[in-house]
Automatic annotation (TrEMBL):
GO cellular component, one term: cytoplasm
Family indicated by similarity: Belongs to the class-III pyridoxal-phosphate-dependent aminotransferase family. ArgD subfamily.
Protein's UniProt name: Acetylornithine aminotransferase
Additional remark text: May also have succinyldiaminopimelate aminotransferase activity, thus carrying out the corresponding step in lysine biosynthesis.
Enzyme class: transferase
Organism whose genome encodes this protein: Sinimarinibacterium flocculans
Pathway: Amino-acid biosynthesis; L-arginine biosynthesis; N(2)-acetyl-L-ornithine from L-glutamate: step 4/4
EC numbers: 2.6.1.11
List of residues binding N(2)-acetyl-L-ornithine: 140, 279
Cofactor: pyridoxal 5'-phosphate
Pfam families membership: Aminotran_3 (PF00202)
HAMAP family for the chain: ArgD_aminotrans_3 (MF_01107)
Family matches, as InterPro entries: Ac/SucOrn_transaminase_bac, AcOrn/SuccOrn_fam, Aminotrans_3, Aminotrans_3_PPA_site, Class-III_PLP-dep_AT, PyrdxlP-dep_Trfase, PyrdxlP-dep_Trfase_major, PyrdxlP-dep_Trfase_small
Length: 405
């Protein structure tokens, strides 16, 4: 086979991504190695996906076992791994029913279709408006990107689907001003991930629930990024004293194996009757077998306790580093989804910080041009967090050795 380099991407791939020059080829726990054998600590987890780290022995075993049995079934057949995973998810959450798909965008697409069909069948065709929040991110299909509320992702793809309203996040008065009998659903991330790692306040989350009840609208929680232990509980809604009507998740659900899910109640699930929605690969036996093991591991109290302990370690040390070097002064987020908004002097340079960290052997993320995002594995050790932060501090020292330009 011919060698693969970063230039190969430019030769054969659609240029909608700009991947790093280095190419990881192996992972173990919270560490990655590139083609040259250089080691990196992973505080990105493939954008909050590999929540149990790389090459987790339990996941490897489950995947190999299922691969030797059955790879694929269409949804005209009953599927053991999918039913086991659905039972685990319903036992652990508010939900009674689950729909499986392959990604967060697909899970949200299903949720939005459910909301529209519920509004139409229960109240009439006028009840079709979906309300979302500016700077949200719900996926890259035309429907989900339109609901997302970020113009940079919709420009040039017009005409966009209609019946969508956007208001400011954490602004209850703004939401109340656009609510009426036409609204079938309000869609929110408990923590806006791509929008800057910005958590909803408890008052706002509870106020959104109350407004949905008042106007007979569904509350849809997008927990694609915050779900599956990332927030410090299995799902972030548990920390707000709020129960959604519909919840979507993906990313960490499969620990790196592609899978998404929409969770809802018995009362709503019947809206998606036979033939109304589907997915060829949804409920794939390989994906569901792995995800079932992932959820079992994540739901363990000791693992969730580690999320809280490592989050406290990470935020405390980050704030010391931020104060020392002036890149940022505080952090925000929930669990091991942590954002560090850059100071005025460094605004727009989040990618520069990420690149400097990469040069020191640490993978980070951005959440827009002004916010650094830290999303290490949920089972990361205290020693690996400390070592990653030493590398991050070295990067900050290099960057600030000259004044920002």
């Amino acid at each position: 086979m011919s060698s693969v380099t970063r230039s190969t991407f430019d030769e054969v791939m659609v240029p909608n991504y700009q991947p790093a020059a280095l190419i990881p080829v192996r992972g173990q726990g919270s560490r990655l190695w590139d083609q040259q054998g250089r080691e990196y600590l992973d505080f990105a987890c493939g954008i909050a996906v590999t929540g149990l780290g790389h090459a987790h022995p339990r996941l490897l075993s489950v995947l190999a076992e299922q691969a030797g049995r059955l790879w694929h079934l269409s949804n005209v057949m009953t599927n053991e791994p999918a039913l086991r995973l659905a039972r685990r998810l319903t036992d652990l959450t508010f939900a009674d029913k689950v729909f499986f798909c392959n990604s967060g965008a697909e899970a949200n697409e299903a949720a939005f279709k459910l909301a529209r069909r519920w509004g139409s069948t229960q109240f009439g065709p006028h009840k079709s408006t979906i309300v979302s929040f500016y700077n949200a991110f719900h996926g890259r299909t035309l429907f989900t990107v339109s609901v997302g509320g970020q113009a940079k992702y919709t420009k040039g793809f017009e005409p966009l689907p209609g019946g969508i309203r956007h208001v400011a996040f954490n602004d209850l008065a703004a939401l109340e001003a656009v609510m009426d009998d036409s609204v079938c659903a309000v869609v929110m991330e408990p923590v806006q991930g791509e929008g800057g790692v910005l958590p909803a306040t408890r008052e706002f989350a509870q106020g959104v629930r109350a407004l949905c009840d008042r106007f007979k609208a569904l509350l849809v929680y997008d927990e694609v990024q915050t779900g599956n232990g990332r927030s410090g509980t299995l799902f972030a809604y548990e920390q707000y004293g709020v129960t959604p009507d519909v919840l979507t998740t993906a990313k960490g659900l499969g620990g790196g194996f592609p899978i998404g899910a929409m969770l809802t109640t018995d009362a709503l699930a019947g809206v998606l009757a036979f033939g109304t929605h589907g997915s060829t690969y949804g409920g794939n036996p390989l994906a569901c077998a792995v995800a079932d093991a992932v959820v079992e591991e994540i739901a363990r109290p000791e693992l969730l306790r580690n999320v809280g302990e490592r989050a406290a370690q990470l935020t405390a040390r980050l704030e010391e580093i931020g104060a020392r070097y002036g890149l940022f002064s505080t952090t925000r987020g929930m669990g091991l989804l942590i954002g560090a908004p850059l100071s005025d002097a460094w605004k727009g340079r989040a990618k520069d910080v990420v690149n400097a960290a990469l040069a020191e052997g640490l993978w980070l993320l951005v959440a827009g041009p002004d916010v650094l995002r830290f999303a290490p594995a949920l089972n990361i050790s205290e020693a690996d967090v400390a070592e990653g932060l030493r590398r991050f501090e070295r990067a900050c020292a290099v960057l600030t050795s000259a004044s920002p330009s």
